[in-house]
Amino acid sequence: MKTRILIVDDELSMREFLSILLEREDYETRTAGSANEALGLLENDLFDLVISDVQMPGLSGIELLSRIKLSSPETAVLMITAFSAADQAVEAMKLGAYDYLSKPFKNEEVKILIRNALEKRELKRENIILKQEATQRDGFCGLIGSSLRMKELYDLISKVAPSVSSVLILGESGTGKELVARAIHTCSQRKTKPFVAVNCGAIPESLIESELFGHKKGAFTGAVADRPGLFEQAEGGTLFLDEIGELPVLLQTKLLRVLQEREFRRVGDTAVRKADVRVLAASNRNLDQQVGDGTFREDLYYRINVVQISMPSLRERIDDIPLLVDHFCRKLNPSRSTTITPDALKMLMNYSFPGNIRELENIIERSLILDNSRITPASLPKQLTERLQPCRDADFLIPDGGIELEPLLEEIEKKYLLKALEKTGGAKKKAADLLGMSFRSFRYRLAKFGLDNDDE
Q1: Of 76, 199, 221, 332, whose Cβ has the fewest other Cβ atoms within 10 Å?
Q2: Each residue of 143-161: pLDDT tens digit?
Q3: Is the CATH code 1.10.10 the one for domain 403-448?
Q4: Which CATH architecture has domain 315-386?
């Protein structure tokens, strides 16, 4: 497609001159005799560049420039000024004009300025695209990671976010369950409304009903005024109930009613209030087991578990550790560049991280306190290096009854085969390379364990 240029000038002769000059350079041009006419064209069409006179009857070129930068900031603008109007030129540049032409001007000067303005516009557009691609590649709505598990997670979030269904997010502590809830909210139609998060395990049992539903003045000792609860605060938006497995059974019953009837009462009040709130819940507990034990209501479990999202632990996505380290370095030390030595990064990637991403952030913060420009093995905590020793004698203790070595070795081999396939997204050749074996040998081992189910 040809580059499209809009020429705005109240003088017909100037419009015709510029139009002929630019069309000879293979640009597509449109003309407008006033700023208002130009705005009408801009509403219905896209232009790569606008060339406008500053002084025109009615709406001035400066006002037109301001409107363009609000409605179409990606459009480049060149202003035409009188030779003596230096102050207008400066004002135009401050408002976002690429440059200006002073009358009278030479044809070659016009051509060069247009070419430069369009090149700068294209460079800005490419930078925006690259940033978007980098964001999509390395993360999603505040979540960091480009591993297969994280890409699957991003895809699932994109699918469930537009709905109004409840979502249950399960995973170990420190895996980023609240970040997933926030990502769902951000990608939903409720994104302009409140996102309210509460940790159900951090509120005393005697206060949690009031916290969720609010209370009326005088409902209990200390209730000196009417107070809205979290459901009212999240009206129209999203309420995130973290560690929902900690809720007392009585509160589970009341929460179930709210989810079913979409209405509630404040503590001590008879008035029924509507609840236009999407509820997202999370837990690091085994809720299936709690249902079996009778400590979590089965009907509530099915109500909140319309869609389930399982968070991967950090040890299941070690490929994301370099991205996460970089993210935390920039977050915790924004004023200067921080590097990590290859040995230190290797140690982090060989660590099991029982505390997951939260533990990694704490480790990075500790290292930056010791040296805010460089992370080395010496700046990593002692317990991390101690846990990196996989060949301790205790790992090879043989019980009095003995062991069957062959089945044990086969199980280990099988786990490595499956892990390699998971890491490469099922690509057997790459998985074989990861394990340092030939493709033929890899296929043989898959067949040996009955894992070779296709003809790849």
Answers
A1: 221
A2: 888 888 898 999 899 889 8
A3: yes
A4: Orthogonal Bundle (1.10)
Superfamily covering domain 141-310:
P-loop containing nucleotide triphosphate hydrolases (3.40.50.300)
Placement of tokens 């557009």 in the chain: 125
Closest CA to 356 of 394, 316, 327, 326: 316
The residues near 74 (Cβ < 8 Å, ≥ 6 apart) are 121, 124, 125
Scored b (16 or more CB within 10 A) or e, 357-382 reads bebbbebbeebbeeeeebbeeebbee
Q: Please report the sign of the dihedral spanned by the C-alpha atoms of residue 93, residue 96, residue 98, residue 100.
A: negative
The answer to whether 368 and 333 have CB atoms below 8 angstroms apart is yes
With 70 as the cut, is the pLDDT of residue 454 above it? no
The secondary structure element, H or E, covering residue 32 is strand 28-32
Closest CA to 324 of 179, 184, 191: 179
Query: What is the arithmetic mean of pLDDT over 341-368?
Result: 90
Q: How far is Cα 327 from Cα 338, in angstroms, rounded to an integer?
A: 11
CATH 3.40.50.300 in the chain, residues? 141-310
Task: Compute the Cα dihedral for 285, 287, 291, 295 and give only its sign.
Answer: positive
Q: Please report the pLDDT score of residue 393 as a whole number.
A: 43
Residues of the chain with CATH 3.40.50.2300: 4-131
Separation CA 290–CA 288 (nearest Å): 5
Amino acid, res. 73 = P
Top-tier CATH class for 4-131: alpha beta
pLDDT per residue as tens digits for the range 396-407: 556 555 667 777
Q: Which of 284, 296, 275, 181 is nearest to 228 (CA)?
A: 275
Alpha-carbon distance of 370 to 355, in angstroms, equals 21
Q: By C-alpha distance, which of 314, 322, 356, 366 is closest to 340?
A: 322
Structure tokens at 454: 């296709």
- What is the distance between the terminal CA atoms of the chain, rounded to a whole angstrom? 43
Q: Give the Cα separation of 21 and 9 in Å (integer).
A: 15
pLDDT reading at 139 higher than 70: no
Which of the four pLDDT bands, split at 50, 70 and 90, describes residue 390?
A: very low
